[in-house]
Write a structure and sequence with these properties.
With 212 residues, this protein is of the alpha+beta class. Helices cover 44% and strands 34% of the residues. The termini are far apart.
Length: 212
Amino acid sequence: MAVVVIHHDSNVVKAMKPNEWGDFFGGIFAPLAFLWLILGYLQQGDELQLSTKALHLQAKELKNSVEQQRELVEVTRMQLESEREALNLEIGARREAAKPLFVIKDNGGSFSPNKASHRISISNAGNTVTDVHGHLENLDQNSKFDLFDIGMFARLGEIHASFEITPPFPELGFILSITYVDTYGQPGEIAFGVTKRGESTNSPLQFIQTFG
């Protein structure tokens, strides 16, 4: 309508005031501005959709990264656990290797109705130990007495000891305990049950390890 007025009546155009010109141009360009607004809105929607997809991809990558880090942490934990177990086994093996291995034999003795004298030998098939003490405990009488005391008991070494008792031999037998300090400076103890193989006074002794 405004274009028609301009074409057919130039006097009207000349008589238009500034505010009327503003209304005129507003009427012309308002649809363009509205169209531009719609296009901008649609473009922003596309950009927002692309941004949302990018955020989803970043979130997925972050989740994958977290899973990989968790798996890496688990693998590292398992490796450390395996190394710790191997170290504990090695330490245990070394500590076992540092221990002595005592073998006790009956070397006979002299026997009478009033006294029995037993002789024994103790050999060390294990590692060298120091500060070695041996004592016997009479289980019937609940009494102890020292058997030997040496500063060092070398590997493949042998010591001899003897003890006397008044017959009969204790029904419950003896406990022979040997204390020592190994090469790591750790104290230890090995105990043997001491009984007789027969009923007679001169029956040989037998030694069964019960502790250590």
